[in-house]
Amino acid sequence: MEAQSSSGLLLSRKRRREGSNGEAEEGERLGKKIPRCTVGLKHPAPFADELVPADNKPYVRVPMEEAKRGTPPERPVRVYADGIFDMFHSGHARALMQAKCLFPNTHLIVGICSDDLTHKYKGFTVMNEDERYDAVTHCRYVDEVVRNAPWTLTPEFLTKHRIDFVAHDDLPYSSAGSDDVYKHIKEAGMFAPTQRTEGISTSDIITRIVRDYDVYVRRNLQRGYTAKELNVGFINAKKYHLQERVDKVKRKVRDVEEKSKEFVQKVEEKSIDLIQKWEEKSREFIGNFLQMFGPEGALKHMLKEGKGRMLQAISPRQSPSSSPTREERSPSPTFRLPFFSKTSPPPSPPPHHIF
């Protein structure tokens, strides 16, 4: 049952892609919107020694012309790509993407060399072989992983895994006493070149770590790793701890400087606002002052009006220009005392005659 499920998993991972290389596909993808709901893979690629053995049909390699035209779904083009894949990164993934996109119907097999072969022919690795195997199985372009792959591909290995083409960059790969370990593959017409991704490689990543070694050691010491785990001596460990304390003091000083700059900036902004408000108020005050006490201000007009009223109040009235005649004048009333008045006495009564 496990073998059948593995075979079903293998078939379910077959994907058809248009285009001959990953660069063309990436170029088309830039101006193209990708649907939000995409079908994702839910399982890692199986290992070759866990799959059901191939049928007993004789191995017949697919020619290049037929592979480019497209093969039937039941007969994908089996492309093999090998490598160390230490510290698996985007450069590795892009190379495998190009290998997967070489033909319309491709089954990508990835071979990974063991630690013994790698340390012997290339050098020490950061990740061990199990970690490297597992990292590649989680790449979406990989259909099958061969553990403990050979350093040089033999006809027996190619026949066992029914390999049609070998994908690798076209630069000569000198190793194991050979100027190019893929020379016999190229001569047999089984080589399919891919392009390296500039600016990213395992050696570049290791170079960055070595360049910033002190920074990473101090960071890991701060995270709880011991000096013994980092292979750091007692004196260097104390030096790194001292540097960390100095950096903390520097950070605090920098924080204080930034806060003081912010405070000064806020004070400057407030002072500018106060100055602007003061200027507005001062202009308003000066305008009101001039309006009241200026040459043509309200106070001058008030003084003029008051002065005119005072002069009018204290100055005598002027005679009319033409005096009326004596006859026209109204008689002035005379005032006489009662005892100086010459009034006629009342008439005396007539005498009475006595008869």
From TrEMBL:
Q: Which Pfam families match?
A: CTP_transf_like
Q: Please explain the role this protein plays, according to its UniProt record.
A: Catalyzes the key rate-limiting step in the CDP-choline pathway for phosphatidylcholine biosynthesis.
Keywords in alphabetical order: Coiled coil, Lipid biosynthesis, Lipid metabolism, Nucleotidyltransferase, Phospholipid biosynthesis, Phospholipid metabolism, Transferase
Q: Where does the source fall among the domains of life?
A: Eukaryota
**Reaction it catalyzes:** phosphocholine + CTP + H(+) = CDP-choline + diphosphate
Coiled-coil annotation: which residues? Answer: 239-266
InterPro entries in the cross-refs: CCT (IPR041723), Cyt_trans-like (IPR004821), Pcy1-like (IPR045049), Rossmann-like_a/b/a_fold (IPR014729)
Q: Where is the composition biased (Pro residues)?
A: 344-355
What's its EC?
2.7.7.15
Matches recorded under NCBIfam families: cyt_tran_rel
- What species was this sequence derived from? Neogobius melanostomus
CC annotations in GO: endoplasmic reticulum
GO molecular function annotation:
choline-phosphate cytidylyltransferase activity; phosphatidylcholine binding
**Residue ranges with Low complexity bias:** 1-11, 315-324
**What is stated as this protein's family in its record?**
Belongs to the cytidylyltransferase family.
Indicate the enzyme's highest-level EC class: transferase
Q: What is this protein called?
A: choline-phosphate cytidylyltransferase
Q: Where is this region: Disordered?
A: 1-32, 313-355
Q: In which pathway does it act?
A: Phospholipid metabolism; phosphatidylcholine biosynthesis; phosphatidylcholine from phosphocholine: step 1/2; Lipid metabolism
> Which residues constitute the signal peptide according to the record?
none
Q: Residue limits of the Cytidyltransferase-like domain?
A: 80-208
